[in-house]
Amino acid sequence: LQQTIEKRIANYRTAISNAKESGESAKIRRYERGLKTLEAMLAAAKKGKKISEEEMPPPVATGKKSLQGHAASSPIVETGMRILHALCKSQNCFVLTDLQNSSTRAILLMRQKEYKLAALKAKQQGDLEKAKEYMKAGKKFNVVLEALDSGQPIDLQNMPPSPQGKARLTKTLLDISLCCNGMILNLIAKLLCNDVFVSAEASLQQPKTVLEALQQRLEKYKSAAAQAKASGDDRKGRMHERIAKQYQDAIRAHKAGRKVNFSELPVPPGFPPLPGVAATDGDSTVAAVLESASKLANMEENDEEEEVVPSAVAEEESSPEHVKRATSPSTLDKAESMDHLPPAAREQLEFLENRKKQYMKAAVKAKKENNLEQAKMYLRTAKSFDLKIEQAKCGKPVDISKLPSPPTDDEGDFIFIHHEDVRLSQKADEVYAQLIKLLKDQHERCLQYSKQFMHLGNVAETTRFEKLAQGCKKDMDILQLARAQGMDPPSHHFEERTFKMIRIFSELNSTEMHLLIVRGINLPSPPGVSPRDLDAFVKFEFQYPSAEQPQKSKTPVINNTNSPEYNQLFKLNINRNHRGFRRAIRSKGIKFEVFHKGSFFRSDKQVGAAHLKLEKLESECEVREIIEIFDGRKPTGGKLEVKVRLREPLSGQDLQTITENWLVLE
Fold it and tell me: Where is the composition biased (Acidic residues) (predicted)?
């Protein structure tokens, strides 16, 4: 059934593609509705849900032929193919398959380029939804190209249509035809001459001086810029012109005898290293690659381009200098440079360097997934760690509470493997759901604890809980894969784990104190007013910064009840180190007054008062009390629930011991 649905989906996609080419909007809408139904049925089938074949949309006529037939119908292509057949028979060589693959690759690359340009144009016009749609369609071509390279047969009938309609289709066919003609002529020449064309890069003369090498690279980027502009790719032309300008500045500086940082210059693919220039040290292969990519990403910021990072990374990866940097003995030097630091500073430096590497690895991963905007963002974040690392190397303390959290994968980024005829029992499915929920809760708690210790600057505990969070994430991935394959739930057990936690409220800053008036309980009523007719509100006064200038406010009125629910939050300004604030905490506290709301002719009537002591804030970050309401010195029987919170205790730490049942997969 799943195979039938997949074939039907391919049928509908082909029909939609052909209908778009012929401009039949009614058919497009009808086919798209059917395709949406089929995709929903396929998703349900993969999850093991029951599908009714009767509800499946019927097959439709696909209409026009694919592009491959058009491209192959060129007279030059046909003539070339006949010549190749004759040459192959005489020389026993098999190049026709390569030619067909090259022709198919040319078609796919041309269509992918159309979608990228259409996405860029849509973005420039402000149509972000259309731009995202085109980018997603363009990325799908990478999977098809990989399949083609691995030798799998490719059916171009399912290829998405041109995003620019018939006008663009004509130009595409002409470009593909010319491309195929060029490939045929090259193959014929190879067969006749029994040789391979020598590339421009291979014929480069080995430069003898640095100036000659720089000039050689400058000419390469100038010609690349001119070639890109001639082909209509203005964006790539501007990019190469910017790199050419970098080389012009470097040449002028070198001629004037000034020092030039050659490692900042991108290296064209295939070019030899600069003669007589020592390779610069780098922390790692990733660091060397991303340094150049980061600079180009910043240059490209205002141009909204998507190919800068991959081109910079590809150029850097192909550079021989890149290989030398990777093998430099920087790790020994780094170990020696850390010897003079105290243990706490070394631990902090290692933490900063590891966090920077996390972002650089995330940038490389995003680049490989063609998520270039995400890669640029990760690169900039990694670059922001440099100043803090230098401070740590000098022995200066760094406030890690302000560092960005480690990059994480999307929650739904799991690999699913679907098999036919896989069915889970209802009981097994429930077990999987419960295990995944428990692991997700553990993962969220670990991230929460890690963030708390990070705000306190505790590197060891921050790293510990980050590793625990990663372990929970891996276990969730394992469960998702096992569930998708129809396997029984893995063996598991629960361990009782005890964590010593330092309680803080990280969402508060150090210059504020939160007061929450939660509710009143059996509040007293003034004479002549029944409890059901009480219209109560609460005033408070906190004598800071002084008794003459206290901070005060009141809750809204809650009508017709003597047990009102307020849940009203007030933010009070404080200075933790001010003697007046410490005095207010130790001796004054917060004063509350409860009133019954008066009418137009009657003033508000006070029915009681209460006082909250705040000494606990010396060692705890929250005071939560249900305080008694008095009328003078006489208890009224009414009570008021209130909370006061600081970001962290005024002195010491609010230590808590938490014991949890921890799920462990075996």
Answer: 300-318
What are the structure tokens assigned to 66, written together? 């694919």
The pair of three-digit structure tokens given for residue 571, joined into one six-digit string: 């933010």
For the chain, how many residues are written? 666
- What is the DSSP secondary-structure string of 247-297? HHHHHHHHHTT----GGGS---TTPPPPTT-PPPP-S-HHHHHHHHHHHHH
The answer to whether the CB of 465 falls within 8 A of the CB of 455 is no
pTM of structure:
0.36
The whole-number pLDDT of residue 382 equals: 84
Type of residue at 285: T
* Residue spans of alpha helices (H) in 369-404: 372-383, 385-393
Does residue 534 surpass a pLDDT of 90?
Answer: yes
> Shortest CA distance to 650 belongs to which of 558, 569, 566, 584?
584
Is 584 in contact with 543 (CB distance < 8 Å)?
yes
Say if CB 326 and CB 285 are below 8 A apart.
Answer: yes
DSSP at 588? I
In this prediction, residue 174 carries a pLDDT of 46
Domain boundaries, the chain: 1-46, 99-157, 210-264, 343-402, 425-492, 512-647
Amino acid code (one letter) for 648: E
Cα 288 to Cα 300, 323, 361, 654: the distances in Å are 19, 9, 12, 44
What is d(CA 619, CA 656) in angstroms, rounded to the nearest whole number?
A: 12
The residue ranking higher by pLDDT, 92 or 523, is 523
H/E element, 515 = strand 512-521
Q: Are 241 and 308 in contact (CB under 8 A)?
A: no
- Say if residues 437 and 446 touch (Cβ distance below 8 Å): no
Do the bridges between strand 551-554 and strand 536-542 make them parallel or antiparallel, or are there none, so unpaired? antiparallel
**Contact criterion met (CB below 8 Å) for 550 and 544:** yes
Supply the Cα-derived Rg of the chain in whole angstroms: 35
Residue 191 to residue 89: CA distance in whole angstroms: 11
Segment 556-559 long-range contacts (CB within 8 Å, at least 24 positions apart): 557/597, 559/535, 559/597
Q: Which of 346, 342, 344 is nearest to 354 (CA)?
A: 346
Partners of 644 in the β-ladder: 515, 623
Terminal-residue alpha carbon distance, the chain? 35
In the Cβ-directed half-sphere of 566, how many Cα atoms lie within 13 Å? 26
Mean of pLDDT values over 360-373: 80
Provide the token pair at 527.
């004479």
Cβ of 134: how many Cβ atoms within 10 Å? 23
The CA-atom distances, in angstroms, between 623 and each of 575, 590, 617, 618 are 18, 12, 7, 10
Q: Before 545, cis peptide (omega within 30)?
A: yes
pLDDT value at 610 more than 80: yes
Least confident span in 247-256, 374-383, 392-401: 392-401
Looking at 237-251, 364-378, 538-552, 598-612, which range is the least confident one? 364-378
Whether residue 133 has pLDDT greater than 80: yes
| CATH code at 512-647 | 2.60.40.150
Residue 205, judged by CB atoms within 10 A of its CB (0-12, 13-18, 19+), counts as: exposed
Q: Which two tokens stand for residue 295?
A: 């600079």
Q: What is the pLDDT of residue 272?
A: 78
